[in-house]
Amino acid sequence: MPAASFDTQTLTSFDGTPIAFHTVGPRDAPTIILANGLGGTYAAWRHQVAYLEPRYRFVTWDYRGLYASGRPRDPGAFSVDHQVRDLFAVLEATSVESAVLMGWSMGVQVSLEAIRRRPQLGRALVLINGTFGKPFSTLPLGRLAERLVPKVLELLRKYHGVSSAALRQVSTWPETIAWMKRAGMVAETIDEDVFAEVVAAFGTMDMDAYYRTLHALGDHDAHDVLPTITAPTLVITGDKDRMTPPKTAKRIVDKIPGAEMLMVRGGTHYTAVEFPELVNLRVERFLRERNI
Fold first, then answer.
1. In angstroms, how far is CA 218 from the centroid of its own chain?
2. Is residue 190 pLDDT above 70, yes or no?
3. Residue 9: phi, psi to the nearest 5?
């Protein structure tokens, strides 16, 4: 499947950080904001963009310090709050006042925080393989992981040069995806071309910025936002997602009034790349039923 021809531009965010943002689709069409997973690029959305682009305009951006966006001058400025303020700068640059917020993984938390700050922004929400906050607590080992992961991240950040070199090497191995399949990290049905592009990009990332962002993500909690959401909401997850397990998706659906859920059998944390046809059709129906 050919990649969409995104137009890439750069703006200066509220604190002087250069933020790269990407747009594609008819300018007069309803807008879908794509909030990426941590470490992902818009390449991960290739199937969704290709299917929906004729009827929607897509806007997305690279998180600060990652890929084409610059690092902030303040080494501590990687919180979800900073990411949302970058998003608002992108929305101003693209003249978007309301949109469908479609977030994957970390992008779910970013989307929820954006709704907390601007409830009128979301015409609808599509939340894929994510959580509402305190993401380390949903990992295997629960509260033990919540205590240990930040310490591990601090250690990894201290030696980020070593992990960067290792990731660059692993991202070039053709057997990496096969190994991830055997480990149950991704499903057999995953689009290997798209995922290989995501993995290759991940290998070029600034790992210091990545670890700082992930550490800050662990402190974010938007559980109090869920009952206040009035926008139509669709939650999508896979029953094999180990990072944000199905019980987390069910909690989101239970707390957001009128929310709907699609549970994809066999889907992992990469459901939208593993079962794109099913995800696309469900999203299309969801938006059509809301006249968006």
1. 15
2. yes
3. -135, 170
Each residue of 109-131: pLDDT tens digit?
999 999 999 999 999 999 999 99
Give the DSSP H/E element, type plus range, for residue 112.
helix 106-117
pLDDT tens for 200-250 read 887 788 888 988 998 899 889 999 999 999 999 999 999 999 889 999 999
**pLDDT by residue (tens digit) across 147-169?**
555 555 565 555 455 555 555 55
Residue 216 C-beta-side C-alpha neighbours within 13 Å: 20
Which residues make Cβ contacts (< 8 Å) with residue 156, sequence separation at least 6?
163, 207, 211
Instruction: Give the separation between CA 112 and CA 132, rounded to whole angstroms.
Output: 7
Domains of the chain: 7-289 (3.40.50.1820)
The answer to whether residues 40 and 198 touch, using CB atoms and an 8 Å cutoff, is yes
Do 217 and 38 touch, CB atoms closer than 8 A?
yes
For residue 259, which amino acid is it?
A
